[in-house]
C-terminal binding protein (Falsiroseomonas selenitidurans), 347 residues
Amino acid sequence: MSKPRILTPAGASFTVAGGGYDLEMEALERLGAEIVECPATEADFIAAVGDADAIYAKGMRLSAPMIQAAKKAKLIACATVGVDYVDVVAATECGIPVTNCPDTFIEEVADHAMMLLLATHRRCIEQDRMVREGRWAEGRPQLLQVPRLMGQTLGFVAFGRVARLVALRAKAFGLRLMAYDPFVDELTMSALGVVPASLDEVLSQSDFVSMHAPATPETGHMLTTKHFARMKPNAIFINTGRGPTVDEAALIAALEEKRIAGAGLDVFEVEPAKPGNPLLAMPHVILSPHNASASARFDEARKRRAGQELALVLSGRWPMSCVNPTVLPGSGLRRWQPYAMERGPNS
């Protein structure tokens, strides 16, 4: 029996290059699997993927032709929360599950979102500059215009794993919580002290709006000019989700015209942010380079998780975190072995 072959694009990563695949292989070694790199171009990938048993995606865009060329692949494993660099529709049509790491570093993202909220509210960067530039006397007068945090309203647009952890943190600061998410039931929200609401209610009533929607074809430019127009003039917009879910030009206009008060952004519509982006020059906007999930455990945790998902599928089991669940065991798709069908999706 031949060794399972896992194809991955060389050098495609968000973190430090190199380092090998020792962490992924902790789960794969018993299967005799091997991870093979190919040049990170569409043509080279298509030429190499035909006999691959699985694909380890690392940030390189996987297009429909690349996925359709994967005639044997049983899985596309992503070591990230977002999978917007994979054509999930094409993978589903080909009967290939796509997995992600939805719960591996959500604590870090929730911490980051809360940090952006607190730092923008208390004008942290501006206050720091006042001290450094000898403008000591300006600090207190600025904060005398800032309302007390306790009792203000934090509204969530989408209420997934990260938003729920942010809600736990925000509750300790005395914030009133509300959320819009048509895919989350009211009991889940109310159990965390969060009031279910419409999108309009969240935008119009919140002092802080925290965006958590994933990047999908349906959520592109989910928030536009008309949505920012519904927000309070004192409102602060936080986004630790995905940049393309927001019409960035509309956000910039709302900030420039003072229709909202400020923003804390970890993500942008185009990344890296271009030097001429007006957001870079705005005093009451705090930015970070799409690193909310980063911590000392980031690489180790995500690499181990990707290896575990690959090992599960290559041994005939169902993965832990499938983002295209319509690809189900027992559905007649050619990629699944009888063992997986017998065990079911929760095994």
Confidence is low (pLDDT under 50) at residues 330-347.
